[in-house]
Amino acid sequence: MRPTLRFLTDELAERIIAEARDLLCGLGLGIHSKRALGLLGDHGARVDAAGRHAWFTSDLIDRALDAAPPSFELFDAFGNQTHDLGGDRVHFTPASSAIYYLDPDTGRMRRPTTADYVRYAKVVSRLPDIAAQSTAFIPADVPTEVQDSYRLFLGLFHCAKPIITGAFSAAGFALMQDLLMIVRGSPDALAEKPFAIFSCAPTTPLTWSETTSENLLDCAVAGIPVEIPTMPLAGFTSPVTVAGTLALHAAETMSGVILAQLAAPGAKVLYGGSPAPFDIRYETTPMGAAETWLMDAGLNEIGKRLNLPTQAYMALSDAKALDAQAGLETGMGAVVAVLSGINSISGPGMLDFENCQSVEKLVVDHEIVGLALRLARGIIPREDFPVRPRIEELLSEKHLLISEHSLKHLAAEHHFPGPILERANQSRWLEEGASTLPQRARDQADALVASWQPPGFESEVFAGLIERMTAACRAHGQDELPELDN
Questions:
Q1: pLDDT of 1
Q2: What are the structural domains of the chain?
Q3: How far apart are CA 47 and CA 37, in angstroms?
């Protein structure tokens, strides 16, 4: 039996959905895209084009939600399936779009560089329990106008895993789509076997900017899956209560699902979220808060009730260093996320309210993820009954280390962490240097970088990526790409 967590009663979940529908129909949303307003108007919504506002109808909501797929698959750069997003199947990816990087030499946050991103991409390619890469942070050594596509370029160049990403402008999407098609080969192939998910989120409360709505529609038409990580802040931009925030979140996220389906019925969408409470003491948005976990688990239950696959930002920390707080918040969030059955969990590696990515934390979090995934597999009898023969063998042999039953089931039953987690006794630990967790994390990251191998693309793919990205940088005043250190 797979262990599960549930926080909403059927009655409460239905009430939240009903309240969200009332917001969509009664208050409507501000929508700054003429294209999106036109789609809504064509499908029966009441539209105020001058005021850039639209009011949905119950029929429109029902038709769009019925068109959205309950699950979809994701593939790596070579077309091999890596994800089945739906049901209670869970997949982890690093959190995205940090503006700072935790320097492993100084322990201080700073602006990231290309070299930092290359190190990250090489490491994430070697972490088996991290199912996808993400455009985890923003290198600052290229023009601002191409930073969204440049981090995608670096990820594609160094790692074959599918990628969670997003454009910073409506125009940026075209360049990013070009990069994806260089790898996949054609628009049809990209739609048939998608290997990227774009994040497209409304602005709380109840607003879609022109950029995010255009990105959402472009992805839907191109067959590129999207996640909608709506970000209400309880007590600031949403009601102070978890239930009230979930109602506003549901309205905003449902609106994105509906827009995608109007653009392309059957568009692949993750019902996502990055909600948090607003800590009025520090004016911060803690991602490691219990209320955040409740909101994320709750939005997952709402999404599943709407028959949609889900996403949330969990398994991350607000700490500023690789310390006990980082482990506490990440570990608890990972367990809640896995036991809730959130399909795409974005978080490992992240610190400081989604502002800072750390490669060393990422390798630690990989071990946390492995433990959480083992917990989710639950308790499974493996030729255990009747148990008397096992105990008779134990009494006779004094141990079961080389028992046929032990040898047969050890690998499936016991999860063995890597060298990050210290399981040796004290004497051996002292003998081997008495290393600290941050030291082991740094050593493991270095080892993973040293063992990295480039993705096995044809040379034309690498050349095409470099040519397209170089042209984009030159258009914005930078003649050459930074050194990729391959």
A1: 84
A2: 66-377 (3.20.20.480)
A3: 7
